[in-house]
Every structure is written in C-alpha cells, then in structure tokens.
Amino acid sequence: MTEVPAFFNLYRHNFARLAVAVPPVRVADPAVNARETIALMQEADARHALVTLFPELGLSGYACDDLFHQQALLEACLKALSDIVAASRQLSTTAIVGLPLVIDGLLFNCGAVVHRGRLLGIVPKNYLPNYREFYEGRQFAEASCLHRDSIDLIGQTAIPCSPDLLFRIEGQPLFTFHIEICEDLWVPIPPSSFAALAGATVLLNLSASNVTVGKADYRRLLASAQSARCLAAYAYSAAGIGESTTDLAWDGHGMIYENGNALAETERFADKAQLICADIDLDRLVEERMRQTTFGDSVRLHRDTTARFRTVDVPAALPTGIHLPLARRYERFPYVPADPARRGERCREIYDIQVQGLVTRMRAAKTKALVIGISGGLDSTLALLVCVRAVDRLQLPRSAIIACILPGFGTGERTLGQARRLVAAFGCRTNEIDIRPSCMQMLQDLGHPFARGEAVHDITFENVQAGERTSHLFRIANMHGGLVVGTGDLSELALGWCTYGVGDHMSHYGVNASVPKTLIQYLIRWTADESGLDAPAAAVLRDVLETDISPELIPPGEDGTIQLTEAAVGPYELQDFNLYYLLRFGYRPSKVAFLAWTAWRDRTRGPWPDLPDEKRHEYGIADIKRWLAVFLRRFFEQQQFKRTCLPNGPKVGSGGSLSPRGDYRAPSDASANAWLTDLDTVPDSEDGERA
Fold this sequence. Notes:
CATH architecture of the largest domain: 3-Layer(aba) Sandwich
Shape: elongated
Number of strands: 20
Distance between the termini: 17 Å
CATH class of the largest domain: Alpha Beta
CATH superfamily of the largest domain: HUPs
Largest sheet: 7 strands, mixed
CATH topology of the largest domain: Rossmann fold
Structural class: alpha/beta
Radius of gyration: 31 Å
C-alpha cells in the first residue's frame, strides 16, 4: 500500500487541534476526579489534540467552599496531580488542569500545565469574584499576592509559576497559549488581552461558571468578543455534572472560538463526560495580526506591560506523518452566506450596498439615466436588478434605464431571448442594436481574414465585438446624459477575463466589481425565490441561472458546441474559493489546495441543495491543483495591469475587492514563480504519487 503523504495532514498546513474537556466531578474526591481527567486526556490524545483544556478546580471540584482549607483535601489534590503527571508520560497531548495549591502559606486557585511526565508551569488566578453567589475571596489569594516566579512541586523543581506565562509549542511556534481562569475573562481588561499582545495566539480559560438563565449567551458573547479583539483562538471549559447543587447549578459549558467565530461547543447539562475538538487555523490568526496594523500599535503602546511575560517551551511532537484530515468544515462557497437563517438579511444588505453606491454616483453626476448592456447572462442580470432598485429608490421611472441588447456573431438564441424577457419583465427602455455590421466594417478596415469569408475566430475577432459593444454603450450614454453601468464581476477581474479598456472592463461605475460569480448566482437565485417578483420575472431569472457561462464571442461549432468560459479559466466555484483564501488571508497555494480538498472531499454535499445531480461537481486534488495553477498565473503574473485602472465601484464584502484605490495594490509585472513553486509541493493524487 502506498504511504499516505504528510500533505493530507492538518498539522502540515499550520492547523492545530485543540480540545476542551468537561469531566464529571465528584466534589472533594480528587482521586476519582483524576481518573476522569486521565480518561479524557487519553481520548484527546487518540484524537491527536495538541492541547486539552479542563475546568477550574477540576481535581477538587469548585463547590468545596471551606473544605478548601482542609489539609486532607489539599494533599489529595497534590496526589491527584501526581497521578495525572505520571499518566501523561504516555501521551502527546498537553493538558491544563485546575486545582488548589498552597504556596508560601497562601492558597491559590491554579491551572497546571502537564506534558509528557512534567509540570511545565503553574498559573494562579488573577481576579477572585466575591459578590452575589461567589465567595472566592474567602478561600483564595489573588495572583498578585504571589512573591516568587517558580516553585517546587511533586518532586519537580523550579517550575515556572506566574499569571504572566506564555507556553510555546516547540514543533509549532505559531501555537503559543496563555491561561486565565474564569473571572479573568469577565473583567474590563482580561489578562489574555495583554497576553495576546505579548504573542499568545491561543487563549485558554479554566472556568467553573455556574449557570443561570441567559448566562450561556453571555459567556458566548464574552468568548467570541475576546477572540475577535485579540485576533486569537479562545477556548473555555466550565464545570458540569457532579458539582454540588446545594445553592447553584452547573451546565458544563465548553466552547472554542477563533477570531470571533464559533468552532465547537459542548452539549449543556450533559449527564456524561464530554470532549470537543476544533482545528485552529494558526495562519489566519497570524495573518490577521500582520494586516491589522492597529494590533501592532497596541503592542507598542503596551510594551511595558507585555514585557513581564515569560515564555515556556513545550517540547511537543506533532503527528505530521499520518493521514489526518481536518475535522473542521470549510464551505465550498466562502462568498455565499452560509447561515440559512441569515441569508435573506445578507442578500438584502449586499443589494443595499450596491444600490447605495449607484444612487450616490447618480446624484453626484446629476444624471437621471442609466445605460447598461444586457446579454442574458449572470453579470448583466444582477447589474440590471441593481439598476432597477436604484431608480426605484430615486423615484424615477423604470424607463430611466436604457437596456441595450447588442447581439454579435456568437450570440445565441437562448441568451438573446432571455435578454429581451429581462428588459420586458422589469419595464426598462429597450435599445436593441445588431453590432455585426459595425464589427464587420472594422474587420474589413483591419484586413482581418473573417471579413474575407474565412472562419478565423481569433482574439482580434473577439475583441472587435467587445469594443463595439462598449463604444455603443458610451455613445448612447452621451446622447441621453446617462451613466454606463458596468457588469463585470470580481471573479472575472481576478482572472483577467475581460477585454482591457473595452468590454466589461470599462464603465462609468461598476456595481458588480467586488461581487464574485458564485455570489452573483446566489443573489439571483434568492431574488427569484424570495423577493416577491411576479412569475415572468422570476422565471427568466431561473432560466439565466441554468444557462452555461459564455462570452458568446465565437459562433457555435458545427456540432453545436459553444464557447465556455470555465473551459478556459476553470470552474468559478473553485476559482472563487482560491480567490477568497489568497486575497482575504494571503495563504500559500499548498494550503489553499488543502482547504479546497477538504471542502470538496465530502461526497454528500453539492453546491446548491436544489440543483439536479448533473449540476453537482466534485473535484479531486489533481483538478484542484490544475485550476489553481491557472489562477496563480493569471492573478499574480499576467492580468494585474487590468486591475490597476478599474472604474469606481463599491466594496461589498470582507472577502476583499481588487480596486487599486481600496483593498489591493500590486505591481503589474510581478512573477508568479514563488506561488507556483509552493504549488508544486501539492501531490497529483491522494495516494501521493506524482503524475
């Protein structure tokens, strides 16, 4: 059997699996609690988790109250910790467990970091709640009471002991974690804020937060917001079943967030032990910090505070030599709203952004007319919908939209019919002009073989048609004092699939300039299904969606085959995926390929739930690599010059735009070699064999 390559391993691509454990607890019985903890450590290790987080005071139980001042309990906790340390010798995961510790005659609420038979650090709690149902100030001392930076414990010496410790995984230096305990997150400035500025990318919270009505939502808000502000991952493990219900209740709420996004959450009020895992994208966190320059400003402003942090190395070995796919779900369509409950809201917002941009431009230009070329395809259909909403908002008649239908040599009957139906359905003014005579005149002037009756359909033949359409649109706009509305989209701009200076490259205002093809498809589908259109309008929108994507510049072949855009530049569903992760996050191509393989390897998921089987596509690693190479050459090396002179248009999403005045500035004469060299590390098949 061919050995599976390390390429198909999440750790190879700067992901790291993080586990949150919620064991059942027996109050004041550390021996039982240690056995439950060890069992979950073993499970986390079997699932290849790099770090496993446990709840606050998990070895004793949180609800011990004044029993914390009993020597028998404190000594039993030390014995439990010793058992856990011994058990960790056979495990790769690093565990963070909670227990009470006496240091210099004071009792501290601590988190202990355990790895491979060693205690790597002890972190005491900073903020002790002493209000409402909490009485921690009665039993424990704050971390600020600690007057040493290391302790000796269970036969080990000089163990770092401080709330200002960072733990860095030696095999993965991007994974540096910090520990805070429960209330530390609830204060105005959590200690993890400074830890993040000091370099921590993963923030861990051992908690014993009891449950009250509505509290779970507030915990989620805190963890989400802290991970977003700190551009970090945030993991939270709270006490669950077994804690004393004398006066309180416990729900065992564990969760993992990454930069504001929820990745995993436990079942609350479970009657058994729980272990959740999430694969943290360390590259994403590091890239976001690099891009967000105000994060660096904060590092500078708080350098005196962050200077007190010490770093402890964790000698963890990563399981890189095995087949280990991501457990994390990646959507095939990152530009498309993933949450069904919010899709309608998101679609309305996208339209609002486009419409507001166009309305503002019309007011500034003091015009009451819009000129748009309608092909019967996706892009011009969405642009027409935006124009309709814009004139409606300005309380202008739909006849203010001069919809130009400009058939050429490659125009098909289907798209021509759809163009006519679209204009009629939305009540726009129609201006249909056959551009073939003017194109033929130019071809004759050029001495082109087609003008002599030869079937030569070269780039000149194509661009003459694109140029004639643009010329007609601008001259019509001159006649009516209107604006030419651009229809070109983000995907075409990324691939350079537009004719420079003419065609859909140029307009007075490009409403689709930051909307990719897959999102355009979804917006049209949502408009047809949910926006309350009449039957003819909805029907023509659905027909547009079912039409093959083509520039229609070359006549059909003798067998009826037509010019297909995706045959030249690749499937838009793949190229939009590539664009998102290269533009938004700056990932290396090999990682983008791994993410695409992750997204498309689930054979049960199609691109759209209502598409027939023949419309559902699957891509293996060879297809992904092939089309990513096309993308890299066109995006980085060949087509940037077209993006340096784009017309104005509104930025729609955080996925970015390609405007040189907005998100993206790049040289027009760069080389793609660095990206292509990295892409060469991607195998040509899943068994790792090279073609």
